[in-house]
Amino acid sequence: MPYKKETILPLVEKLKQLNDYENIAGAIQSGVDFLTGHTYETPVFPTAETARQMGHFISLLQIPDHWDDNDRLILKLISPPITWNECRETFLTTIIPMMDMPGTSSSIVLRFSYFTSYLQQRGCTPEEIGSLMISYSRDGNNFDLAPLKFTPLRKFLQDLIKSAEPHVINAYVNTWRKKGWNSLFFRLLTKGHPDREMEYLENILLLPEYLPDQQAVSRVLLQNNPGKYEPLIEKTTTQLAALPDYAAAVSGYYLLAGHLPEKYNQRLLKAAYDYLERQVAGPYTPESGYSKVTGEHTAQQHAPRRAGSARLAAPRPPRSRSLSR
User: Residue 187 and residue 171: Cα distance in Å, rounded?
Assistant: First the structure.
């Protein structure tokens, strides 16, 4: 059953307040005509800019387990490839936050069934669907390693990843190796496929131009379980030092020396001297303090300052903290 004009009118009136409404009025009217039953063929637009205007109607969608004939008209409106390509972002940012809304067990099952079926119809693979949910939930844009408190979305994702075939897990690890650190994906992977945990972490700790987040990940891993993660952080720090990546070497050995000073103080001093000697030999600019995970600027707390002269002052070793194994 088509929309009633009265239902869509408030949205149209709101759009008329836009400065460029006269430029998009024709596209909006095409969408209104389809949704209200004046036309029956799904409009296909000649340009991406025109197709993008169908995204305005996404705000009318209900939570997926409540999708009815009206909702299905909107889903059909945004389904042509050019329109979906332009409206996908708006669709995901609108719908994925709804997935954690309260509901009965049966309604939540329907919710995820309708949502994932629609994405599959748009050509998304199971891994792409899972990764989209992780990304747009924004639950992983932090360095939190506390056990997950389950919500409908997190429970669905845990079951999805835990039951995934090896080739699908390969796709997940490859996707998030490129995307970078995500605490939600890491915890889901550790829970469902612990044998792939170190592979993912090693890739993260060796990503280029990622120093602020590598520092944060290394710090939280050592705080969480130093006995488990010290060998991995030693391995990646040694590899970075050999590149050489002076700032990363100082950062890594500083964190390690904080837990095992007897083992790492001398390596920290050598890395610091190497860093300062490079500064004297020529300008070396460490990476910015911008975190790709949180989107914020972070202070480079542990890298030595630029050398102002050839005199090298040895950094003070960090205080000893015991390493429980």
Answer: 17
Q: Are 58 and 90 in contact (CB under 8 A)?
A: yes
Region 139-147: what's the mean pLDDT?
A: 94
Q: Give ∠ CA 141-135-154 in degrees, rounded to 5.
A: 85
pTM: 0.84
Report the alpha-carbon distance of residue 280 to residue 310 in Å, rounded. 6
How far apart CA 38 and CA 5 sit, in angstroms, is 11
Q: For residue 271, give every residue at least 6 positions away whose Cβ sits within 8 Å of its Cβ, in sequence order, or none.
A: 241, 246, 249, 250, 253
> How far apart are the C-alpha atoms of 147 and 129, rounded to whole Å?
23
Residue in the block written with tokens 């040895």: 314
Closest among 137, 51, 58, 36 to 96, alpha carbons compared: 137
Tell me the per-residue pLDDT of 33-84, one tens digit each, with 9 for 90 and over. 999 999 999 999 999 999 999 999 999 999 999 999 999 999 999 999 999 9
